[in-house]
Amino acid sequence: MTIKINAFAIVMPLAFATVPALAADVPAAATTTTTTTVAPAATTSIVLPATASDVLRAGAEVPLVTAEDLTTKGKALRVGQRVQMTVAANVEQGGVVVIPSGSPAVAEITEVRNKGMWGKSGYIAARAVSVRVADRSIRLTGAFNDKGVTGTGGVVAAVAFVPVAGFFTTGTSAHIPMGAAVKAFLDEDVSFKR
Fold it and tell me: Average pLDDT for residues 32-51, to the nearest whole number?
Protein backbone atom coordinates (compact mmCIF):
# COMPACT_ATOMS: atom_id res chain seq x y z
CA MET A 1 0.00 0.00 0.00
CA THR A 2 1.44 3.41 -1.00
CA ILE A 3 0.31 6.80 0.27
CA LYS A 4 1.15 9.91 -1.80
CA ILE A 5 1.57 13.27 -0.11
CA ASN A 6 1.90 16.65 -1.81
CA ALA A 7 4.53 18.33 0.38
CA PHE A 8 3.93 21.84 -1.07
CA ALA A 9 0.25 21.79 -0.20
CA ILE A 10 1.05 21.04 3.45
CA VAL A 11 4.13 23.23 4.07
CA MET A 12 3.34 26.55 2.31
CA PRO A 13 0.04 27.43 4.07
CA LEU A 14 1.60 26.53 7.40
CA ALA A 15 4.66 28.72 6.76
CA PHE A 16 2.62 31.89 6.12
CA ALA A 17 0.13 31.19 8.91
CA THR A 18 2.60 30.34 11.66
CA VAL A 19 5.51 32.70 10.97
CA PRO A 20 4.38 36.36 11.29
CA ALA A 21 7.68 37.67 9.90
CA LEU A 22 7.02 35.95 6.54
CA ALA A 23 3.47 37.29 6.39
CA ALA A 24 4.65 40.83 7.30
CA ASP A 25 7.26 40.89 4.49
CA VAL A 26 4.65 40.27 1.83
CA PRO A 27 3.03 43.55 0.68
CA ALA A 28 -0.72 43.83 1.35
CA ALA A 29 -1.55 44.53 -2.30
CA ALA A 30 0.34 41.44 -3.44
CA THR A 31 -1.58 39.16 -1.13
CA THR A 32 -5.03 40.39 -2.18
CA THR A 33 -4.79 41.24 -5.88
CA THR A 34 -1.97 39.22 -7.40
CA THR A 35 -2.39 35.60 -8.40
CA THR A 36 0.79 33.56 -8.56
CA THR A 37 1.06 30.20 -10.31
CA VAL A 38 3.45 27.75 -8.69
CA ALA A 39 4.49 24.36 -10.07
CA PRO A 40 3.39 21.48 -7.81
CA ALA A 41 6.07 19.91 -5.65
CA ALA A 42 7.22 16.34 -6.23
CA THR A 43 5.12 13.68 -4.51
CA THR A 44 6.61 11.51 -1.79
CA SER A 45 5.83 7.78 -1.45
CA ILE A 46 5.57 6.12 1.94
CA VAL A 47 5.72 2.34 1.92
CA LEU A 48 3.85 0.76 4.84
CA PRO A 49 5.27 -2.34 6.57
CA ALA A 50 3.98 -5.82 5.80
CA THR A 51 0.66 -6.70 7.34
CA ALA A 52 0.64 -8.45 10.70
CA SER A 53 -0.76 -11.61 9.12
CA ASP A 54 2.58 -12.14 7.31
CA VAL A 55 4.49 -12.44 10.60
CA LEU A 56 4.31 -15.22 13.18
CA ARG A 57 5.06 -13.37 16.40
CA ALA A 58 7.49 -14.37 19.15
CA GLY A 59 5.68 -16.27 21.88
CA ALA A 60 3.65 -18.44 19.50
CA GLU A 61 3.46 -22.03 20.76
CA VAL A 62 5.45 -24.72 18.94
CA PRO A 63 4.47 -28.26 20.06
CA LEU A 64 7.47 -30.61 20.14
CA VAL A 65 8.10 -34.29 20.94
CA THR A 66 11.37 -35.85 22.02
CA ALA A 67 13.03 -37.99 19.35
CA GLU A 68 15.19 -39.90 21.82
CA ASP A 69 14.96 -41.43 25.28
CA LEU A 70 16.43 -39.29 28.10
CA THR A 71 17.33 -40.88 31.43
CA THR A 72 19.76 -40.45 34.29
CA LYS A 73 20.09 -44.24 34.42
CA GLY A 74 23.62 -45.17 33.38
CA LYS A 75 24.86 -41.61 34.07
CA ALA A 76 25.27 -40.87 30.36
CA LEU A 77 23.54 -37.43 30.19
CA ARG A 78 25.75 -34.35 30.48
CA VAL A 79 24.98 -30.64 30.84
CA GLY A 80 25.23 -28.98 27.42
CA GLN A 81 24.39 -32.18 25.53
CA ARG A 82 22.11 -31.59 22.52
CA VAL A 83 18.87 -33.59 22.27
CA GLN A 84 16.94 -34.25 19.04
CA MET A 85 13.24 -33.35 18.87
CA THR A 86 10.58 -32.90 16.17
CA VAL A 87 7.61 -30.57 15.69
CA ALA A 88 4.44 -32.47 16.69
CA ALA A 89 1.86 -30.41 14.74
CA ASN A 90 1.76 -27.72 12.05
CA VAL A 91 2.22 -24.16 13.31
CA GLU A 92 -0.04 -21.93 11.19
CA GLN A 93 -0.73 -18.22 10.80
CA GLY A 94 -3.69 -17.03 8.74
CA GLY A 95 -4.19 -20.45 7.14
CA VAL A 96 -0.53 -20.71 6.05
CA VAL A 97 1.70 -23.46 7.50
CA VAL A 98 4.78 -21.60 8.74
CA ILE A 99 6.45 -24.48 10.63
CA PRO A 100 5.43 -27.91 9.28
CA SER A 101 4.90 -30.97 11.44
CA GLY A 102 7.99 -33.19 11.52
CA SER A 103 10.51 -30.33 11.27
CA PRO A 104 13.67 -31.14 13.25
CA ALA A 105 14.25 -29.27 16.51
CA VAL A 106 17.04 -29.21 19.08
CA ALA A 107 17.02 -28.95 22.87
CA GLU A 108 19.91 -28.70 25.32
CA ILE A 109 20.36 -30.40 28.70
CA THR A 110 20.71 -27.68 31.37
CA GLU A 111 20.87 -29.75 34.57
CA VAL A 112 21.48 -33.40 35.43
CA ARG A 113 21.44 -34.98 38.87
CA ASN A 114 21.91 -38.73 39.07
CA LYS A 115 20.12 -40.81 41.69
CA GLY A 116 22.13 -41.44 44.81
CA MET A 117 22.36 -42.81 48.29
CA TRP A 118 20.04 -41.85 51.13
CA GLY A 119 17.06 -41.83 48.75
CA LYS A 120 18.24 -39.07 46.41
CA SER A 121 16.26 -39.15 43.14
CA GLY A 122 17.51 -38.37 39.64
CA TYR A 123 16.65 -35.10 37.88
CA ILE A 124 16.85 -33.89 34.25
CA ALA A 125 16.20 -30.32 33.04
CA ALA A 126 16.44 -29.12 29.44
CA ARG A 127 15.50 -26.14 27.28
CA ALA A 128 14.33 -25.85 23.68
CA VAL A 129 16.96 -24.18 21.47
CA SER A 130 15.83 -24.04 17.83
CA VAL A 131 13.79 -25.55 15.00
CA ARG A 132 14.97 -25.88 11.40
CA VAL A 133 12.56 -24.94 8.61
CA ALA A 134 13.99 -25.32 5.09
CA ASP A 135 17.36 -23.52 5.32
CA ARG A 136 16.50 -21.34 8.31
CA SER A 137 17.14 -21.97 12.02
CA ILE A 138 14.47 -20.33 14.23
CA ARG A 139 15.20 -19.68 17.92
CA LEU A 140 12.91 -21.30 20.50
CA THR A 141 12.41 -20.90 24.22
CA GLY A 142 10.82 -23.16 26.81
CA ALA A 143 11.97 -25.60 29.45
CA PHE A 144 11.03 -29.12 30.48
CA ASN A 145 12.20 -31.53 33.17
CA ASP A 146 11.61 -34.77 35.02
CA LYS A 147 12.39 -35.89 38.54
CA GLY A 148 12.59 -39.46 39.76
CA VAL A 149 10.79 -40.60 42.89
CA THR A 150 12.67 -40.06 46.13
CA GLY A 151 13.31 -43.00 48.39
CA THR A 152 12.80 -41.01 51.59
CA GLY A 153 10.18 -43.39 53.02
CA GLY A 154 12.46 -46.36 52.47
CA VAL A 155 15.39 -44.53 54.04
CA VAL A 156 13.41 -43.63 57.17
CA ALA A 157 12.15 -47.20 57.57
CA ALA A 158 15.59 -48.68 56.93
CA VAL A 159 17.32 -46.32 59.38
CA ALA A 160 14.73 -47.19 62.06
CA PHE A 161 15.60 -50.88 61.86
CA VAL A 162 19.18 -50.97 60.57
CA PRO A 163 20.94 -47.57 60.65
CA VAL A 164 23.47 -48.39 57.90
CA ALA A 165 20.74 -49.56 55.46
CA GLY A 166 19.70 -45.97 54.59
CA PHE A 167 23.08 -45.51 52.99
CA PHE A 168 22.25 -48.18 50.40
CA THR A 169 18.69 -47.00 49.64
CA THR A 170 18.42 -44.87 46.48
CA GLY A 171 15.68 -42.96 44.72
CA THR A 172 14.68 -43.65 41.11
CA SER A 173 16.26 -42.29 37.94
CA ALA A 174 14.65 -39.43 36.05
CA HIS A 175 13.22 -40.49 32.69
CA ILE A 176 11.77 -38.57 29.73
CA PRO A 177 10.64 -41.15 27.18
CA MET A 178 10.95 -40.85 23.41
CA GLY A 179 7.78 -39.17 22.09
CA ALA A 180 7.14 -37.12 25.25
CA ALA A 181 5.26 -33.88 24.51
CA VAL A 182 7.07 -30.61 25.16
CA LYS A 183 5.74 -27.05 24.82
CA ALA A 184 8.16 -24.60 23.24
CA PHE A 185 7.61 -21.02 22.08
CA LEU A 186 9.07 -18.85 19.33
CA ASP A 187 11.86 -16.62 20.62
CA GLU A 188 11.79 -14.37 17.54
CA ASP A 189 9.31 -13.06 14.96
CA VAL A 190 9.11 -15.18 11.81
CA SER A 191 8.10 -13.45 8.58
CA PHE A 192 6.76 -15.55 5.70
CA LYS A 193 5.32 -15.20 2.22
CA ARG A 194 1.83 -16.28 1.31
Answer: 44
